[in-house]
Amino acid sequence: MEIYCNDEHRLIRSTVREFAEKEIKPIAAELDESEEFSIELTRKMGEIGLFGMVVDPEFGGHGFDVLSYIIAVEELARVDSSQAATVAAHNSLGIGPINEYGTEEQKKKYLPDLCTGEALWGFGLTEPDAGSDSRGTKTKAVLDKGEWVINGSKIFITNAATEITLGSTVQAITGDKDGKKEYSTILLEQNVSGFKAIPMHRKMMWRSSNTAELFFDDCRVPESNLLGKLGEGSKIMLSTLDSGRLSIAAMGLGLAQGAFEMALQYANERKQFGKPIAKFQAIAFKLVDMATKIELARNLLYKACWLKETKQPYAKEAAMSKLYCSEIAKEVADEAVQIHGGYGLMKDYDIERFYRDQRLLQIGEGTSEIQRLVISRYIGC
Amino acid sequence: MKILVCISNVPDTTTKIKLVNNNSGYDKTGVQWIINPWDELALTRALLLKEEQGSPITEISVINVGTKDTEPTLRKALAVGADDAIRVDAEAKDAYYVAAQIAEVVKNNGYDIVLCGIESSDYNGSAVGGMLSELLDVPSVSSVSGLFIEDGKVKLNREIDGGTQVLATETPFVAIVQKGIALDPRIPAMRGIMMARKKPLVVLPPADIEALTEYIDYEMPQAKSACKMIDEDNAGDMIRLLHEEAKAI
Ligand SMILES: Cc1cc2nc3c(=O)[nH]c(=O)nc-3n(C[C@H](O)[C@H](O)[C@H](O)COP(=O)(O)OP(=O)(O)OC[C@H]3O[C@@H](n4cnc5c(N)ncnc54)[C@H](O)[C@@H]3O)c2cc1C
Q1: Does ligand 1 lie within 6 Å of residue A153's CB atom?
Q2: What CA–CA distance (Å, rounded) separates A268 from A344?
Q3: Which residues of chain B have pLDDT under 70?
Q4: Neighbours of A147 (CB within 10 A)
Q5: In degrees, to the nearest 5, what angle opens at C-alpha A349 toward C-alphas A347 and A355?
Q6: Is B93 helix (H, G, I), strand (E, B) or coil?
Q7: Catalytic-labelled residue, pool A75, A317, A335, A365
Q8: Is A50 left (phi over 0), alpha (psi -120 to 50) or beta?
Q9: Can you tell me the ipTM of this complex?
Q10: Nearest C-alpha of chain B: how many angstroms from A68?
Q11: Surface-to-core class of residue A351, CB atoms within 10 Å of its CB (0-12 exposed, 13-18 middle, 19+ buried)
């Protein structure tokens, strides 16, 4: 990846890799099994600076470029998807919209805490009736005596119900214009009365990442909590998702890399018919296909990052990266389990967790079908 | 007080070494370079000392004798927390050459404490630290596993057979450190990586010094033979194998 990476990118990669191997790897399986979101680990990830990587130092961030952040997410996902999800969601979805669209005052108020790992912020778009079609949003916000009064609910919101969650950005209908619904985004703090955030349990994957249902019952927040302009909600949410796609892609790439490495090591160690199974062409070719897909995925994703960094249109490449990286994560994890044989189905082997964790990637932040829909518009269908 | 930490740039410890050019060197393509593990611990200890309340340490510098390729390793040392870095722009030809180059810099800059790893994980020469102290004509303490400053006085721990030796010394001196000097090497934080961008990395021309040795030939160690596991119930098998296969008994 010499075209896109400089020495600093390489240092970030080796640093996050070392951290992930030392701090996350030894406890990842246990956290997964007990379905526990770890505040301590989140704090540690904050201490080494994994939150607010692209935020300006003026607001408590570290001022890195997009690729630095993407490499960090990739390296976390190489070891554990749940922790990568906490970091990716908080950076791209929690911090992202406030950093991009917040007023000076909003940024000063929220970003410094959100960049430390001591506080998390959610991004509430999805509702029971509004998944792929976010225009199905039912949550409403009405202005009353200088306050927004919010009613409705959200589902599947990452990082929104931990003990250290400060609040969430919520998309709501704020009016009707010529018969068309008008959407806006509002910052809602966790302690507002009438608000409930309930963790969702029994997930198949990302079991130590926090996922929440949110309920708003006459929640009142100051009018000044509007994020961006009135009626700009869809635009803000969609641009956040464009950028968020890069980090989900990074999760796919990292997971695939981790799964590949496990499979390669296993194939070189496991002997059947008198030799390591990697020496059988059928297994070697699987590993070759994995390595090739990973190389392609990395090229595509890093190019999308470069486009974003250099302020060129990148939405098509972001959608392609999200689509491709998440699809190959599935294929690579699947073949990696195959190479592990029966052991790959046992929880004693990390590949079992990787196989479950990859399954969200083709669904969250826009399903593979929706990515194809987005891309089809760009290529002239 | 100023500390200088000598940093050797070595291949990652998991690197598979492939010999090239008639076994006179090894293939460096694709090799991941790291800070020599002992040097990394030395740097970590220096940083911990500097961070202590009322610490007399004012500055931590790192030095490497190497070509431009070693700069990422020095940048990492800066990201971990060193204040500035010096690179003597020359191939590290042998231990004497490296020690003599570093000695020149120490003479010119005046450090109170110079830390060297007990060896570097590539050539394992264990020579630079001792030579350096001799060239500087200052005391050296080897196998240091603890470094403390109490009331402005430096105390050093050495592991010896069956116990620990505690030494005190005047500055300047060279400490040759081993494991235990710090528990774990410090991982840089993102903020440190960002700050390292602005820290000075000075490149000095090498002093006119001749190396005393030359590498002629390398040999790969014999591949370890596979390990045979014998069930505890079949101890007789072990005796038979030792007798018939290993011909050890
Ligand atoms: C663990 C987890 C974390 C999440 N975190 C967040 C978060 O932080 N914030 C947030 O807002 N949301 C979050 N989500 C929600 C996620 O973004 C949605 O689940 C996703 O967008 C899909 O919506 P849905 O589940 O309602 O599926 P649906 O939209 O009901 O889709 C069902 C199926 O229909 C297909 N489909 C739908 N429309 C079309 C179409 N037009 N053409 C072709 N096929 C179509 C889909 O591709 C899919 O296969 C999270 C989800 C999970 C599981």
Answers
A1: no
A2: 15
A3: none
A4: 16
A5: 75
A6: coil
A7: A365
A8: alpha
A9: 0.89
A10: 10
A11: buried
pLDDT at A1 over 80: no
Dump pLDDT digits (tens) for A252-265: 999 999 999 999 99
- Please, where in chain A does CATH 1.10.540.10 lie? 7-118
Q: Would you identify the CATH topology of the domain A235-378?
A: Butyryl-CoA Dehydrogenase, subunit A; domain 3 (1.20.140)
Over residues A298-319, mean pLDDT: 97
**Does residue B241 lie within any of the structural domains?**
no
Q: Average pLDDT of A197-208?
A: 98
User: What are the Cα distances from residue B203, in Å, to A126, A373, B66, B67, B69?
Assistant: 55, 54, 10, 10, 12
- Residues A193-214, mean pLDDT to the nearest whole number: 98
B166-186: pLDDT as tens digits: 999 999 999 999 999 999 999
Task: Say how many Å lie between the CA of residue A142 and the centre of ligand 1.
Answer: 27
User: Which stretch of A43-57, A270-284, B57-71, B205-219 has the lowest confidence by average pLDDT?
Assistant: B205-219
Q: What number is the average pLDDT over the span A307-322?
A: 97
pTM: 0.93
* A365 catalytically annotated: yes
Q: Identify whether B233 is part of a domain.
A: no
In a domain, B204, yes or no: yes
Quick one: which atom of ligand 1 is closest to the CA of A154? 11
**pLDDT exceeds 70 at position A287:** yes
> In CATH, which superfamily holds the domain spanning A7-118?
Acyl-CoA dehydrogenase/oxidase, N-terminal domain (1.10.540.10)
A333: part of which helix (H) or strand (E)?
Answer: helix A315-340
The CATH number of whichever domain residue B179 belongs to comes to 3.40.50.620
Architecture of the domain made up of A121-232: Beta Barrel (2.40)
- Both structure tokens of A266: 């296993």
| Residue A5 CB less than 6 A away from ligand 1 | no
**Closest Cα in chain B to A19:** B187
Residue B106 belongs to domain spanning: 2-220
Between A273 and B121, residue with greater pLDDT: A273
- What is the C-alpha to C-alpha distance for residues B171 and B114, in angstroms, rounded to an integer? 10
Is the pLDDT at A338 greater than 70? The verdict is: yes
Indicate where chain A has its CATH 2.40.110.10 domain(s): 121-232
Tokens of A315: 């939405």
Helix (H) or strand (E) holding A286: helix A281-309
